[in-house]
């Protein structure tokens, strides 16, 4: 959600903070601010709206200093306004802080502090934390943080400047990500890795209730009781240019164009293509734990959940094992009782998705084996899961997931293939054939990207559509759900996905003259069934677009337009089929003039409920 940056060192902090906030703007925000020690005071500058508004203020009223923190806020408590923008300070002007997360008991704490005479100026839960810290502060920042943490309930990541210790930044977090790193010119803090890639690749991910103290010459760590601890660091080998837009108009287009490379990088981590064979030691399955495995439950949110739905198809088809896929926010409150022999497979791009973390901890408490599919080394889910299957998408800046979805379904496919290989539900010859099929996938993807003008042209004719429905069967139904999500996310067009066979059970009542229906047909053995469904909507006035796996002449008569993939195996077709759907969403949004990379009301990483 919100973004935090901080720097203390030998350079002017203000441009470093602004650069970091620019990098984190993809997370979604409605105001921005910084606080910098100028040698005499902690100076705050903040403003409602775009980061450019804050930059304009700083051009008129420059702030110079070598230690500071910054924030982009996404409103939860209190409307977007100057007063509610971060940073916030205490009434005694002893400290200033920024905050990500939600303080669940802020009303009780606020009432307690008001009884003591504290006067509040904002509607935020963040000011409550600042006032609480100011109330318990007696000259020892670590002790004040430890005391405040005993009273705070909820999720938080805090970066704090104390007036008495102006060259250090104090940080603490719980259920909200925080990354610290030390570079040549000082120490950095951020709520996400890309904000500090320009300065250091060696970072430390803070654990729950751990405290970090950043100074110009190093970083010290403490546990929740204020006792010093040692923490190691992780090296991030992301390409710095991957976090920059380059010559592309939008990050979303750049990231779609990066999908052939992201697919190849991810597949090569798990497959030796020379033989070809799966790299057995890269997967969490062996003969012993496979004998114990009776069921897999896949958990995710949004796009990750849709990847899980496709993963369910893969595990069911290839490994012949019972699989359920569930939305994390529903699962965590379902009262579910884990069964013996069950494994929980969690999918998350960031590794910081709040509901998915909660499901992970439920499983850990029950003694259930946990396996994560994740893109970020050192993230909470990556640290806490028993095993991790990493994706290699690199940084993804646009809010709408594209290459992260592709790499997730790639890993799920390969994991299912390996499990089927061990269980003996798929022959060695078929494994080799499917792996050989993967070698040509990047070429097929690139062809789709290179020929995207046809998709742009179609979008230019249909962008005024009020309703778009996606239909498919089997694997295509799972793909349709992600296609519909992409369109509604970035274009704000109402779009939904329906199982094609369910049309007659109520959904077809929504079809009227001019309704756009997109049929996904990558499974040739189901093509005739889906063709009948396309005809049903076409004769009722719908405009029909079909995406087919190779040439399917029998489909054309039921459609206004057909997009053809190169013909490929039905199990690997989704890797290519999702690209035209992402491009379609992108061009529809561009035609409407939407903010493609930062859709309204959305954030990249959902770290609160």
Structural class computed from helices and strand pairing: alpha/beta
Task: Kindly provide the name of the CATH class of the largest domain.
Answer: Alpha Beta
Tally the structural domains. 3
First-to-last CA distance: 11 Å
CATH third-level topology of the largest domain: Glutamine Phosphoribosylpyrophosphate, subunit 1, domain 1
Helix content: 25-40%
The CATH architecture term of the largest domain is: 4-Layer Sandwich
Q: What do the pLDDT scores average to?
A: 91
CATH superfamily of the largest domain: Aminohydrolase, N-terminal nucleophile (Ntn) domain
| Main sheet: strand order | 3-2-4-1-10-9-11-15
Largest sheet at a glance?
Answer: 8 strands, antiparallel
Number of helical elements: 20
Report on the architecture of this protein.
- This protein is an alpha/beta fold and 609 residues long.
- The chain folds into 3 domains: 3-237, Aminohydrolase, N-terminal nucleophile (Ntn) domain (Glutamine Phosphoribosylpyrophosphate, subunit 1, domain 1); 246-439, Glucose-6-phosphate isomerase like protein, domain 1 (Rossmann fold), CATH 3.40.50; 449-595, Glucose-6-phosphate isomerase like protein, domain 1 (Rossmann fold), CATH 3.40.50.
- Helix content is 37%, strand content 24%.
- The chain contains 20 helices and 27 strands.
- The protein has an 8-stranded antiparallel sheet with strand order 3-2-4-1-10-9-11-15, covered by helices on one side. Strands 5-6-7-8-12-13-14 form a 7-stranded antiparallel sheet.
- The longest helix has 21 residues, at 403-423.
């Amino acid at each position: 959600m919100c973004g935090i940056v901080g720097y203390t060192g030998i350079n002017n902090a203000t441009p470093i903070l602004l650069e970091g906030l620019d990098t984190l703007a993809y997370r979604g925000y409605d105001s921005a601010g910084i606080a910098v020690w100028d040698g005499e005071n902690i100076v705050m500058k903040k403003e409602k709206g775009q980061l450019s508004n804050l930059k304009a203020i700083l051009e008129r009223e420059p702030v110079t200093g070598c230690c500071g923190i910054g924030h982009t806020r996404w409103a939860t408590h209190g409307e977007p306004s100057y007063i509610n923008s971060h940073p916030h300070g205490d009434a005694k002007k002893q400290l200033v802080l920024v905050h990500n997360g939600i303080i669940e008991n802020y009303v009780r704490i606020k009432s307690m502090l008001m009884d003591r005479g504290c006067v509040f100026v904002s509607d935020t839960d963040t000011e409550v934390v600042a006032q609480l810290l100011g109330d318990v502060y007696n000259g020892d920042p670590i002790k004040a943080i430890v005391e405040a943490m005993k009273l705070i309930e909820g999720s938080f990541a805090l970066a704090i400047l104390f007036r008495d210790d102006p060259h250090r930044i104090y940080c603490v977090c719980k259920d909200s990500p925080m990354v610290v790193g030390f570079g040549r010119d000082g120490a950095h803090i951020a709520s996400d890795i890309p904000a500090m890639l320009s300065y250091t690749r060696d970072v430390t991910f803070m654990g729950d209730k751990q405290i970090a103290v950043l100074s110009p010459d190093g970083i010290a760590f403490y546990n929740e009781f204020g006792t010093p601890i040692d923490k190691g660091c992780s090296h991030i080998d992301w390409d710095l240019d991957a976090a920059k837009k380059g010559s592309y108009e939008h990050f979303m287009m750049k990231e779609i164009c990066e999908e052939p490379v992201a697919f190849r990088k991810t597949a090569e981590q798990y497959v030796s293509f020379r033989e070809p064979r799966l790299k057995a030691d890269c997967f969490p399955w062996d003969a012993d734990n496979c004998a114990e495995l009776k069921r897999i439950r896949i958990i995710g949110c949004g796009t990750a959940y849709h990847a899980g739905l496709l993963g369910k198809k893969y595990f069911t088809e290839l490994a012949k094992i019972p699989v359920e896929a569930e939305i994390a926010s529903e699962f965590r409150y379902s009262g579910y009782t884990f069964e013996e022999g069950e494994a929980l497979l969690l999918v998350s791009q960031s590794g910081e998705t709040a509901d998915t973390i909660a499901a992970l901890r439920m499983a850990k408490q029950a003694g259930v084996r946990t396996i994560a599919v994740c893109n970020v080394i050192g993230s909470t889910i990556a640290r806490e899961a028993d095993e991790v299957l990493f994706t290699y998408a690199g940084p993804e800046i646009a809010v709408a997931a594209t290459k992260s979805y592709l790499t997730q379904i790639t890993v799920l496919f390969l994991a299912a293939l390996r499990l089927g290989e061990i269980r003996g539900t798929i022959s060695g010859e078929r494994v080799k054939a499917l792996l050989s099929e993967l070698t040509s996938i990047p070429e097929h993807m690139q062809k789709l990207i290179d020929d995207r003008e046809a998709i742009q042209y179609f979008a230019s004719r249909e962008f005024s559509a009020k309703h778009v429905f996606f239909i498919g069967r089997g694997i295509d139904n799972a793909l349709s759900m992600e296609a519909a999500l992409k369109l509604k996310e970035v274009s704000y067009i109402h779009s939904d996905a329906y199982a094609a066979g369910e049309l007659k059970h109520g959904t077809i009542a929504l079809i009227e003259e001019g309704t756009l229906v997109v049929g996904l047909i990558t499974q040739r053995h189901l093509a005739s069934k889906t063709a009948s469904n396309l005809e049903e909507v076409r004769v009722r006035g719908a405009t029909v677009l079909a995406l087919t796996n190779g040439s399917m002449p029998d489909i054309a008569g039921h459609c206004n337009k057909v997009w053809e993939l190169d013909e490929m195996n039905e199990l690997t077709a989704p890797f290519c089929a999702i690209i035209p759907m992402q491009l379609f969403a992108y061009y529809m949004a561009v035609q409407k003039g939407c903010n493609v990379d930062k859709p309204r009301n959305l954030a990249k990483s959902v770290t609160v409920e």
